[in-house]
Amino acid sequence: MERRHFIRALAAGSAATALPATAATAADGSEARSQLATLAQKMSEPVLTNLAAGTLKKNFALEVSPTWDGRDKGVAYLECFGRLIAGIAPWLALPDDGTSEGHTRKRLHQLALQSYTNSVDPSNPDYLLWKGPGQTLVDSAYFTNALMRAPQALWEPLDAKTKQRIIAEIKALRRIEPPYINWMLFSAMNEAWLMSIGEEFDPLRMNVAIRKINEWYVGDGWIKDGDAFHFDYYNAYVMHPMLVEILDVLDAKKGAFWNGKPEELRAQAIKRMQRYSEHLERFIGSDGSYPPIGRSLTYRTTAFQPLALLAWRKKLPQSLPEGQIRAALQAVHKAVWSAPSNFTKDGYLTIGFVGHQPELGDWYSNNGSMYIASASLLPLGLAPTDSYWTAPAQDWTQKKAFAGARFPKDYPVNY
């Protein structure tokens, strides 16, 4: 699909005004960034505009999967905001500039700050479901992950009352006992965030989660989800990114970890995420398609969060050059997001994989859940002049392989 058609597809049916496209002669990286920024704005505009005005619950029409388990649907609003903000936080944290993208980013940043304020204000119509079911713990972790990813942009500017309210709501979620699956990382993320801002935290909730994830490591970059191995994308959705970011804080704050060194655990976790990312890169077909496998398939491009996170942090392994990953992810985004029915006529995400496919939803799926897809937008946190955007585009593995070109063979690792 040509770039102009991709931009047009993103803009179709949206209340947001698409960012201006770059000229057709622009460098590959400039085009890729323009497409990603347009997608970020399209995802963000309806959510942040309404939450900042206290009208999200009024205007965000909920959609749940056909197998919905009957829990309080109000959790969808926390899912929507928490997941969205975690992915766009690095982008909102970039310095202001005079570009069209910069003006849009600055406006969305201010809306995000007001959204944080409204989300914990009991008198606001959009006060989120902090006293809700266990799902609240899950999405609180994305809410705090965003504050960890962009503390100067999203935490420090908040007023003292809002900060106190956020801290209180997060600590109150200790009432929810996470099952021994990926959920342990949600508790740990909240405690890591509290640790990062100098608040009282529970080291046991962090350290037990770290231990369990390492116990569940099965090798070659793959982690079980509890006692069972699942062939799905939860290693990308939760396991690798959250483990690394929790260990970032534990290492930076020199936290205690019995009979272990946080800096060594962190280095190991990064290597394992890099290895898993090599597998993800090989999943990407010549046309940007990838295997539609496992639970939560409707999280769409979140499947590539590890690649996006490593790119943003400048930690891609040597085997995955920046120009290759940028080109591969650009193809993935085109393959998924060109379908207009990914969004409602009001600009909100729908349940589906490529377009509106509600039958693919799981028993816990609602359209707020879909905003975890913003995790594939993390490279927008790199300045337009960064080498990720300026490096020459390169073909990715499957594109080379099916063109009969040379490509490296793949072997398992033992770390």
TrEMBL record:
Top-level taxonomic group:
Bacteria
Identify the InterPro entries for this entry.
Answer: DUF2264_N, TAT_signal, UCP014753
Q: Which UniProt keywords apply?
A: Signal
Secretion signal, residue range per the UniProt entry: 1-23
Q: Which Pfam families match?
A: DUF2264
Residue stretches making up the DUF2264 domain: 33-396
**Record-given protein name:** DUF2264 domain-containing protein
Annotated organism of origin: Duganella guangzhouensis
Source taxonomy: Bacteria, Pseudomonadati, Pseudomonadota, Betaproteobacteria, Burkholderiales
